[in-house]
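Worked Example 4.2. Read the sequence first, then its structure tokens.
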Amino acid sequence: MNIQLRDTNEITFDLDKAIKSLKAYSQSTGIESFIIDSKGQCIHSFGKNTELCNLCQKLRDNTNKDSQCASVHLYGSYQAERFGGKYIFFCPMGFVHWAAPITVDDTLFGAFIGGPVLMLDPDEFMLNDIIKENGLNDEQVRELNEYIGKVPVIEPERVNNLAELLAIVAGNISKGNSLSYEQKGEAQEIQSDISEWIHYMKAIEQQESEYSTYPLEKEKLLLSKIALGDKQESQKILNEILGYVFFSSGNDFEVIRARTLELIVLLSRAAVEGGANVEEIFGLNYKYLSEIYQYKTVEDLTFWLSKIMARFTDCVFNLADIRHKDTIYKALDYIKRNYANPITLEEVANHVFLNPSYFSKIFKNEMKCTFVAYVNKVRINASKNLLLNNNIPLSDIIALVGFDDQSYFTKVFKKEVGITPGKFRATRGRG
């Protein structure tokens, strides 16, 4: 199925080539895929992947929650740009996707997204997590079950290869290019705001004024707006600060560039203070500081700085919740694959690249239980299936699901199930 989803006048890359390339990818791999713009919105789709977002939207409408699909896609794209051109992630509904960024002049203008797929057969725990997260009723659970049955289950190695291939396809689309008409209009609007501020300062130049020196209060206000994730107000205040920088520099481009460097550092610090991921922000900071010398005009520099500010603001507000959900789903996937072995919080935290104490905190916040409690639930759930087979001794079952002490296993089992393992086996799970 080939679906055109929205107007594409603002796209700066070769959209026809992108559609043709993604169609070849989708048809040759059998994987549903779609193209998003720089705001995370789907602009062209192959397959029925929009069914998932439609289902997600429907479920969230019924529970008065906002759809996060665009933010999820954007998060995956940003991470792919950060991690070498591909990124595999979980959406808030627990499905696996992968992203490959489409860049023009080293700036993200869109991405290819593959999926949804599952890397494990859907189980009771996955369904319970989705049901609990969204507060679904019986009819919605039925719809969810019906949809999950259509989602392909693909082993992790193949998912990684599919992501690698999609990155190669996206790399063939990415290139250097000039600004689109919409971007030129956006850049002109920024320049207009800056010019107005310069004219205002010229008018009061001879007067004693709060604007006769560098507007530190404006800078503090800008940092507070970024920390709150307020893009619109942040852009307005940034334009005023840039107006002062241009006015006071006498149009000396080297001075303007030096002040821009200082602003990037300030913006990144505000993003971190607002709760953005430190490593992600510092990685972006390094990238931006190395890019600045390729810009040769004030117009290009200010437009670029505005995009940086928007990106940092996204990291603070729009994507924080998505990042946590992706991390948690990756942790749950790891637990389900390794519960039979000794498994520690530190081990799983290392797998998702987080500090153990921070991982423990967000795990408890998202799952409403401790890490140990969740691992025990997974192990007990696995033991229930094994207990139905009378040919497997209880001592073997205990070892197979990762416990090393029978009395502790019995205690946890009774707490979770309400009866002892022996009674569960004797009654075939109906006790």
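Now turn to a second chain, presented in exactly the same format:
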Amino acid sequence: MDYHPHVAPFAFLIGTWHGEGHGHYPTISDFRYIETVTFTALPGKPFLRYEQRTRHLDTGAPMHTELGFLRPQPDGRIELILAQPTGQTELLHGTAELIDDRATLTFDESTVSNSRTSKPVESTARTYIIDGDVLTTTFDMAAAGQPRQRHLDSVLRKAEGDGADD
């Protein structure tokens, strides 16, 4: 596939990643989940499509999903634009550090829009650390009158044979 020049350095993300995560927040009970993240590319387009889904670890019941786009910028910055059925959209800005088969994507600046009927979220931050076929994620959130703090952690592995050249 011919990748857009802004997307080509991120081709290692393309594919499906599976694993487990843990959630915690002062206003809820701790929980564990199964997570699937998929990055896909369209030929020549300057973005990657992003989809995330979670299920309860014990029951398999659906928990959360979000869809969006990773938009690498010519100046080296990155943007992540997400929509969630809980009533939020997120526009995150950050940086990418790419060294060999290790990468760190840090989104530390966010604008969150809440629908009229959603529980309000004030701000978010995300990190994605890729080391070979392991993707470690964190999600921080300010909501429910709480300051921004860690809400989710997950460790995912890339599905075998699911790469940019497959």
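Notes for the reader: The chain has one domain: 8-157. The radius of gyration is 16 Å.
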